[in-house]
Amino acid sequence: MDAPNPKRPCHAPSVTSSLENPCPLPSAPGFNQSNIDLTISSFLSLSDLPLFASPLSIGCSFDRVLDKVIPSAAGTSHDEFEQDRFLDRTLQLASVLYKSTERCIRKRATLQNSISWPLLPELTIKVFSMLDTKSLMQASACCTMFNKCAMDRVCYSHIDLTTAAEHVDNGVVCRMIHRAGKELRSFKLGSISPSAGSTSLLTRSCLTPLTFNHGFAGGYLRSLHLYHLRMMDGESLSPVLSACLNLTDLKIVGFVSGRWLNPLEQLGSLTRNCPLIENLFIEIFNSAGRITESSLLEFGDNFPNVISLSLLCFRLNDAIAQKLIQGFRHLKHINLSRSPEISGCFLRSLGLCCKDSPLETLILCNCNSLKEDVSNNQGLVSDEGSSSSGPRFPIEELKKQRPDVTFVAIFESQSSSSSSSGEVYPDGTSSSTSETSSESLLSWSSNNNSEDEHDYDMDSI
């Protein structure tokens, strides 16, 4: 066996390990804590002397003392080992002094804030609970008093990590969920911007803390919004949603569905344990298979309480759109924007087949097949304003049959110099976005305040 080398770093205590596991003060005979306090007080009283650039400065005094203790000439291995220990100890003492000074500064700030801050801790916690997550973190860094108030679980009832998505990793998500505990009610994660989703620090297991302790935190969650988390597929989302039994609001922007899989069938299997969902918003990121009537029936059975339904970029046809409206007994708002195959034929029978439906809002924006069949009057205009062939559905007739329904259809018209980008579906159709020069808009409502009551997120459609 090789003889131990006294110069190896493992034989000398490192500064980091010494700080993490500080050694207790010696209990040798004659040791007196007051003497140490007096020595430190005498050292700190030298603060009026110049620090540098003078023979009488404290810095020069340190240099002279260290030069005497650590001679330049090389000594024995034992001497070098002791010198290394001495330098480590010196760095440790300097670090301890620095950290003690920082604690003193925070204590003074806390004392000053406690005197000048007009609110009781309970009211401060109430105010902090109204802040967004980023502002809460900034407030907690101000002083010890604010930090203590910001650690209350109530302050983390509504966590929004979308405003600092580029700095959020799995560790941040885990800490936020742990701090919220049983107070967790809503959680937003990811990047609102689609381009930032590819640079995320998150992994497929980022939401696993919701399943810890038999889904303790997930069981209290009511609202979950996920934005452009492309690394998370159905397999990684399934255990998370299974733990969120009381979820009433689910929004997934950029859902990654299998290229040839039925997206409704996949969503149904993921959310079968979330029957309380009332608001469902799903935007798929990639091409997906067609919707079948069997998967549609199962999808409706999984969400008996849905009030607001948004299915964006799905390959829906008119028959499926009509069955969606008829299949949900409590559905009031439906958004089927960017569905490339909806032509609008189902609107002809909407007034008769769905006359008992509580539907209030129907949004069909940027549906390529519908675009040729919309006008503000009788039904059909092209981008140039000229009518095409006969209307597939009479708008005026539908307005008479269902005057209580707000219908919104916005279409972007490309300019000659516009640049567009999109995704090609397996059958050759495409879903594209482009810079626009104008928009075509069709909408009616018998209630002028109805759009104010239901907030349309036009940026997302």
Question: How does this structure look, described?
Answer:
With 461 residues, the protein is of the alpha/beta class. 36% of the residues lie in helices and 14% in strands. It has 16 helices and twelve strands. The chain has helices spanning 15-20, 33-44, 58-69, 77-116, 121-128, 133-140, 144-150, 170-180, 212-220, 234-243, 263-270, 293-302, 318-327, 350-353, 395-401, 450-453, and strands spanning 158-160, 186-190, 223-227, 249-255, 279-284, 308-312, 333-335, 361-363, 406-414, 420-424, 430-434, 436-444. The strands form two sheets. The chain has a ten-stranded mixed beta sheet, with no helix packed on it. A two-stranded antiparallel sheet has the order 10-11. The termini are far apart. Mean pLDDT is 75; it is low at 1-26, 374-392, 414-441 and 444-454.
